[in-house]
Design brief:
Chain A is an all-beta fold. Helices cover about 0% and strands about 60% of the residues of chain A. Chain A has no helices and 21 strands. Classes of the chains: A mainly beta, B mainly beta.
Chain lengths: ~270, ~140
């Protein structure tokens, strides 16, 4: 068999394209179903010719090479009065360098001439559950606070849920004892940037569990991270946006913005 | 395009017919994934001519939605040639160029296939699978 160089189809070489998504399992993973008609327009001029065809499915995976099923079938064939062979030999779904989902099929044609103009495809790809993200921006006024440590190590950023205290049985008629439980630690992203009279530094907290209410997001300056100037009163970082309790799910993977701002500590409860 | 070839599963025009209803948890309120498949048992046979003959199939599957079922998102349809024949003394073309699926006013899910044939050719069978997500009130 003569093997031609692999080809990757352009968007205009794929027709009747459709995609469906279903959430399955607990926590829910994503089942993606792709259908379409690929138009490689591959011709033979007398010998058995084969080629690898790649179809970009126009979707991203969240893991490399997820599990899949795929099938292809002949859709449009042509032959001019000679011995003929049309083949769709194998098919797989892989991920590219940016986790883009790709359908790869080896086809073959024999005839003088023969053409395998189109083949149909259906691929089902099972993606694992996504994890959630809380993200926002931390701000302070440089007139009062000057950062003194590495930008990447200024803050302790944490997300907490509320969980029953293990081993403690509540008295009849009382609520169960609960306590804050650290879910994930976050990190700042990039560098400190000045915006007008404010310094800003983005952060994010990744890999949060789906369906678990986050009751507290806290940003605390690490010891020695800031030098206090022009103020007799210390500062703390207070949340200024976002819902009180954050519960992420497959339809709501990111809560943003959950911002914090440095404010002077006041006496009494917040 | 000529008159569509109308096939219906409940009239015996579809073999290997089956469907699955899979409980799901979304997106957008969808609670069922429905997969419908089959192979048409009737096709089209043409005589040789210089020009391709357009073909237009409408295949009513065995699956009927309920009146209050809501289809969520796209309906993804797959179809391919399952069986064809041709006389080797003629140029031939068998083409399935476009595939889609719809919900008919009767609530039956139907496959639509457009294409063409050329030569002393017969397209006997088309295999298909139709996938859709719906929101159903239980």
């Amino acid at each position: 068999m003569n093997i031609s160089p692999p080809i990757t189809l352009r968007p205009d070489q794929v027709g009747s394209r459709n995609m469906l998504e279903a959430h399955i399992g607990t926590p829910p993973g994503r089942l993606l179903i792709f259908t379409g008609i690929a138009v490689p327009d591959f011709q033979s001029n007398g010998q058995l010719d084969g080629v690898e065809v790649t179809v970009d499915l126009n979707a991203r995976s969240n893991v490399p090479n997820p599990p899949f099923t795929a099938t292809v079938g002949l859709a449009t064939i042509y032959n001019d009065d000679t011995d003929l062979l049309f083949a769709t030999d194998d098919v797989k779904v892989i991920t590219g360098n940016n986790l883009e989902l790709l359908l790869v099929c080896n086809i073959a044609v024999l005839g003088d001439p023969s053409s395998l103009h189109r083949f149909s495809y259906q691929a089902m790809v099972m993606l694992p559950p996504d994890n959630g993200v809380i993200a926002g921006t931390i701000r302070w006024n440089p007139h009062f606070l000057t950062f003194a440590l590495d930008e990447r190590d200024l803050f302790q950023i944490s997300a907490f849920s509320m969980q029953p205290v293990p081993g403690v049985v509540p008295q009849p008629g009382t609520f169960p004892r609960t306590a804050l439980q650290l879910e994930k630690v976050g990190t700042t992203i990039g560098t400190v940037v000045r915006k007008g009279s404010t310094m800003e530094l983005p952060y994010e907290i990744r890999d949060l569990r789906m369906g678990e209410p986050i009751v507290l997001v806290s940003v605390v300056a690490k010891p020695g991270a800031f030098v206090l100037t022009n103020s007799p009163v210390p500062f703390e970082f207070v949340r200024t946006s976002g819902p009180g309790v954050i519960t992420l799910d497959t339809g709501h993977l990111v809560e943003k913005p959950v911002d914090f701002e440095a404010r002077q500590v006041t006496s009494g409860p917040h | 395009m000529g008159e569509p070839i109308q096939l219906a599963a409940d009239l015996g025009d579809v073999g290997s017919a089956g469907y699955l209803e899979i409980p799901i948890q979304g997106p957008a309120g969808a609670n069922l994934l429905v997969c419908i498949n089959g192979i048409t048992l009737s096709g089209l046979e043409i005589d040789p001519s210089d020009d391709p003959t357009p073909i237009h199939f409408v295949v009513e599957t065995q699956y009927k939605l309920r009146d209050d079922d809501l289809v969520i998102g796209q309906i993804a349809a797959f179809a391919s040639i399952a069986s064809f024949a041709a006389d080797d003394s003629e140029e031939l073309e068998v083409a399935l160029n476009e595939v889609s699926a719809i919900r008919r006013t009767s609530n039956v899910v139907a496959l639509i296939v457009n294409g063409e044939l050329l030569g002393d050719t017969a397209l006997f069978r088309i295999r298909y699978q139709i996938n859709l997500t719906i929101s159903r009130i239980h």
